[in-house]
Design brief:
Elements lengths: L1 H43 L3 H13 L6 E7 L4 E7 L9 E2 L2 H8 L3 E3 L6 H4 L3 H5 L3 E8 L5 E7 L7 H8 L5 H8 L1 H25 L3 E6 L4 E4 L1 H7 L13 H11 L3 H14 L3 E7 L5 E11 L3 E11 L1 H15 L9 H17 L6 E7 L2 H8 L1 H18 L5 E6 L2 E6 L7 H12 L4 E3 L2 E3 L3 E7 L7 H17 L5 E3 L2 H17 L8 E10 L5 E12 L3 E3 L1 H11 L2 H22 L7 E6 L1 H6 L2 H12 L6 E6 H6 L1 H13 L3 E7 L6 H7 L3 E4 L1 H4 L6 H17 L2 E5 L4 H9 L4 E3 L9 H10 L14
Parallel strand pairs: 17-18, 20-22, 22-23, 23-24, 24-25, 25-26, 26-27
Antiparallel strand pairs: 1-2, 1-6, 2-3, 4-5, 5-6, 7-8, 7-11, 9-10, 10-11, 12-14, 12-17, 13-14, 15-16, 19-20, 19-27, 20-21
Helix pairs in contact: 1-2, 10-11, 13-17, 14-15, 17-18, 18-19, 20-22
Bound molecules: ligand C2E and calcium ion (2 copies).
Length: 768
């Protein structure tokens, strides 16, 4: 039994050994074949790579490897590849260790899992992942050792028996090495490396930015002159390559406006190795530097270096700043301009959406009659006036409020934080009040007023334009309300403005469309009602709105300049009419025609010529025409008024000062201007029976005018009582509804034809 068992076991063993020897024989035959192949291939190989390839080809017959490399002693304690089958292996640096020492001694060493071997554990992750199985073979042992490594990505692919198999091929190494001529390879490599380095350095030197390259160990690999120029003295004059990059960066940090932040940022970038582009740094010396950072990563070796780039962008920033300033700033005043103001308002609107309980407002300020002052003063002085105004304006608002110039004589204020209700109105009033004292320019005093529109920012506003538009509309309302005042924006205003816009368009065409009419209001002797003349008063027969009185469209006509054409038309029409009446009614020969002259007519300087032309064309005696200039207009520019009035007198026309008593003129002024007539304003006469001061003034004016040979016409006399007082105080002439309202040409003609004195309203006719 034992025997039998023994026999079976022995038989079994014999079978196994037979099988083993058969396999071995096959393998050995393969080795033999490989050897033969290698020898043949080596004999044929002309080039180094062919040699290497033949060797690998032979090895493949017996060894299931994926990649291979020939390593040489780089004399810095590492073995580096001089030939390899793939790019990732070229980054291999095997540092001498116990395993490698054995290979150098001449032993073939198999690593079943290279991850466990210190020499391989030190490699980059991807190299480790691709070479779990490694077999190390000495092609030449000892001094100047040359090694062959073959790898496989899976662990335990090579077995002990493979050592036996490759042993047959490795001895061919002598011939192989001869063919490979490794020294040549090495020097060629070195030359290549040097050439590459030189090129790299040349590139670095020629980059128009400061370049710093640090290797993974944070040693300086490259740095250029521009870098030195940017960081100046802190970067030592010597060669930086090889020095400690951490110390160098610390030197840079000392130059930064905030050194701690600079240093912390560098550390963070190095740690995170994330791209940085165009990061702005301020240096303590005021210069601005821009930083880029790139972690240099190669497919073969992974991360290899930190690449820093610094650019001095101070000049560019300054230029940009300059441009921005130009785009956002008003040249004359240095105030924010319209664009910038819009941005500020938009920011406030955004803020209001988040905090609906807060309040903000915009004031739109337009100087009244600035154009006249500017024309008179000249632009340089006009600019001075604007600057002086801005100065006062600034004092009316808080530091945090934004004052801007929209252009010309238009300014805006953003009250970003209105604390108390109505505060914006107080500010607007303050601004109006600040203008009460005249400005002194070129030794002269100049009074100027402003019209202010106020709009509250609300959630209904989508953009700054809308708020500014509302404030602008309110400002126009202030202008139309007689200027020197403030108006608030409300919904009615919107309608008003759109109506006004249409009116403005129509106004430009009313003359050519023949929509204007002249009405004539008799000027009579107070005591007798005898007709002395007429005042020509314009009306507008609007196609849809009907008859419009001048108070509704003349302010707009003045603002838009249409008034010049309107006035000429009125003068021409009324003068032609009078000439016609004179021709047909003998009683008309002593009548005078009063025509109103707007301020716009005066500024042109040609008005007297216009009047002279009309006198010539109509053949009227010049004294028939009496030109009425408003007292306010006279006071606005006294010397211009004096000159114009003088010229009109020269051609024989009469001149009146209209609305006398409203424009704060002095009686002394009358001697200078020497008008023919004063028209006393109605507001001033209405309460004559109760207001002692007014009565005293009337009496004084009449007496003084009489002494100076100036006639007085009381305007707007409506009541008998007024008439009586005026007669009592020596006033001779009047114009008012007590006698007649303005009437059309036909009705006026009937009055002339009648030849009699006008009756008092509701009274019997006064016989002259
Ligand atoms: P104004 O030159 O002071 O003209 C007198 C105004 O007083 C006229 O108003 C007239 O209708 C009104 N009026 C006359 N008597 C009475 C009265 O008893 N009671 C009252 N309450 N008012 C009376 P109107 O025609 O509406 O003209 C208003 C203003 O428009 C004029 O004031 C004048 O400044 C301006 N205007 C009228 N026509 C022209 C024109 O052709 N050119 C220019 N530049 N301005 C004109
Ligand atoms: Ca008048
Ligand atoms: Ca008047």
């Amino acid at each position: 039994m034992l025997d039998r068992l023994d026999t079976v076991e022995r038989l079994h063993e014999a079978l196994i050994s037979l099988e083993r020897s058969r396999r071995r024989e096959g393998e050995l035959r393969a080795v033999e074949a490989s050897r033969a192949d290698v020898v043949r291939a080596l004999a044929l190989a002309q080039h180094r790579h062919e040699t290497f390839d033949s060797l690998l080809e032979a090895l493949r017959e017996v060894l299931p490897f994926e990649e291979a490399a020939i390593l040489v002693d780089a004399e810095d304690g590492t073995f580096r590849p001089v030939a390899c089958t793939c790019a990732w292996l070229s980054a291999l640096r095997l540092r001498s260790g116990p395993m490698l020492a054995r290979v150098v001694e001449g032993e073939i060493v198999v690593a079943f899992d290279a991850g466990l071997i210190p020499e391989w554990r030190a490699q980059a992750a991807d190299v480790r992942a691709r070479s779990r199985s490694v077999i190390h073979m000495p092609l030449r042992a000892g001094e100047g050792a040359v090694l062959l490594v073959c790898t496989h990505a899976e662990a335990a692919r090579f077995e002990q028996r493979h050592i036996e198999l490759v042993k047959g091929i490795v001895p061919l190494a002598g011939q192989i090495l001869q063919k490979l001529d490794l020294r040549e390879v090495l020097t060629e490599r070195e030359q290549e490396r040097q050439a590459q380095l030189a090129m790299f350095n040349a590139v670095v030197d020629n980059i128009q930015a400061g370049v710093l390259v640090e290797d993974a160990e944070r040693r300086v690999c490259a740095a250029n002159e521009v870098l030195r120029a940017i960081f100046g003295g802190e970067v030592s004059a010597g060669n930086l390559v090889g020095t400690d990059a951490v110390a160098l960066n610390a030197g840079f940090a000392r130059l930064a406006a905030s050194p701690e932040a600079f240093a912390a940022r560098i550390e963070r970038i190095v740690r995170e190795r994330a791209l940085v582009s165009g990061e702005e740094i301020r240096l303590a010396n005021g210069r601005i530097v821009e930083r880029d950072y790139v972690p240099v990563v190669t497919p073969a070796a992974g991360f290899i270096a930190h690449f820093w780039q610094y650019r001095d962008i101070t000049a560019r920033r300054n230029a940009e700043e300059q441009l921005r300033r130009q785009a956002y700033q008003d040249d004359l005043t240095g105030l924010p301009n319209r664009a910038r103001f819009g941005e500020e308002v938009n920011a406030v609107l955004r803020n209001l959406r988040r905090h609906p309980d807060r309040r903000a407002a915009v004031l739109f300020i337009d100087l009244d009659r600035f154009k006249i002052v500017n024309d008179r003063l000249g632009h340089a002085m006009g600019d001075q006036l604007l600057l002086a105004f801005v100065d006062r304006l600034r004092r009316c608002v808080r530091e945090t409020d934004v004052v801007a110039r929209m252009g010309g004589d238009e300014f805006t204020v953003l009250l970003a934080d209105v604390e108390a209700p109505g505060e914006e109105i107080h500010v607007a009033r303050r601004i109006l009040d600040s203008l009460r004292d005249p400005f002194t320019l070129g030794g002269e005093h100049w009074s100027i007023t402003a019209s202010i529109g106020v709009a509250t920012c609300s959630s209904a506003h989508d953009s700054a334009e809308e708020v500014v538009r509302d404030a602008d509309m309110a400002m126009y309302r202030a202008k139309a309300s007689g200027k020197d005042c403030l108006r608030l924006f409300d919904q009615n205003l919107q309608e008003y403005v759109s109506r006004r816009m249409h009116l403005e368009q129509d106004l430009g065409k009313c003359v050519e469309r023949r929509e204007l009419r002249v009405h004539y209001q008799p000027i009579v002797e107070l005591a007798t009602g005898r007709l002395h003349g007429f005042e020509a008063l314009v009306r507008w027969e609007h196609p849809t709105s009907g008859l419009i009185l001048p108070d509704r469209f003349m302010p707009l006509a003045e603002e838009t300049g249409h008034v010049v054409a309107i006035d000429r038309w009125v003068l021409e029409t009324a003068a032609t009419q009078l000439a016609d009446w004179r021709a047909r009614y003998p009683g008309a020969s002593r009548l005078r025609l009063a025509v109103n002259v707007s301020r716009n007519n005066l500024t042109g300087g040609t008005y007297p010529d216009v009047v002279a032309g009309i006198i010539e064309r109509t053949g009227l005696p010049p004294w028939c025409l009496a030109l009425e200039i408003n007292e306010n207009v006279v006071m606005e520019d006294l010397s211009l008024a004096r000159r114009t009035m003088g010229e009109l007198r020269m051609i024989g026309a009469h001149v009146c000062i209209d609305d006398f008593g409203t424009g704060h003129s002095s009686l002394g002024m009358l001697t200078q201007l020497a008008p023919h007539v004063l028209k006393m304003d109605r507001t001033f006469l209405a309460d004559l029976d109760t207001n002692r001061t007014h009565r005293e003034i009337v009496r004084t004016v009449v007496a003084l005018a009489d002494k100076l040979g100036i006639g007085v016409v009381a305007e707007g006399v409506e009541a008998m009582a007024e008439r009586e007082i005026l007669i009592e105080d020596g006033c001779l002439m009047c114009q008012g509804e007590l006698f007649s309202p303005p009437v059309d040409a036909e009705a006026a003609e009937r009055i002339i034809a009648d030849g009699a004195a006008l009756t008092l309203r509701g009274q019997t006719r006064v016989v002259h």
